[in-house]
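Review the following:
>
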Amino acid sequence: MEKSNQNDVFIVGFVRGSHGISGEFKVESTSGEYEHFTKMKEVALRNGKTGEQKSFSVEYAEVGGRDLYMKLVGIDNPELAQKFNKWEIIVPRKNACPLNKNEWYVEDLKNCALVYEGKDGLAVKSAPIKVGTITDVMEGGSGNLLEVHLAEDCDCLSDSIKYDSNGKVRTVYVPLKDRFIGKVDVKNKIIQLMHLWILE
């Protein structure tokens, strides 16, 4: 899953050290896919800690086995390539990895309302009710997890579910799997929760 930043700019990978003597470097893809890198004409490198950013034309990007090697115009020796080690590789949405069915960009899931309707032992509702807001997507051991900030004003959740022992509204993690998540409507910023008990 590729993460994006403001203005529909996506983090598609990270520089993972120099390779060879020409200024080429290895790339780690955030999506696990590499083919879309070979079509890129321009990228920006950004220091995730300082926010410093530099734009480059792509000389070439080649897949070699399980790795991808990229050469950018103006980075012509291993010492310079090494200076960008661990920097983010960012591109506009149009150059991000194409989505397959039931795939979404992380940024499109952020700020979606998590809604529930139906009977689940705790509530019976005829209309969807917002139980929380998606704040991020995290990688878990068995797949991606939606980070959810629970809604303080949700009357279908008990206080023991909504608040932690310090009285603060809880953040919970919901597996992004069909058994827990129903319809995902990123256009209208709504994601359907199948079971309330997963929030406990």
Observations:
- Residues 70 and 183 are 38 Å apart (CA to CA).
- The helical segments are 78-83, 106-109, 159-162.
- Residues 78-83 form the longest helix (6 residues).
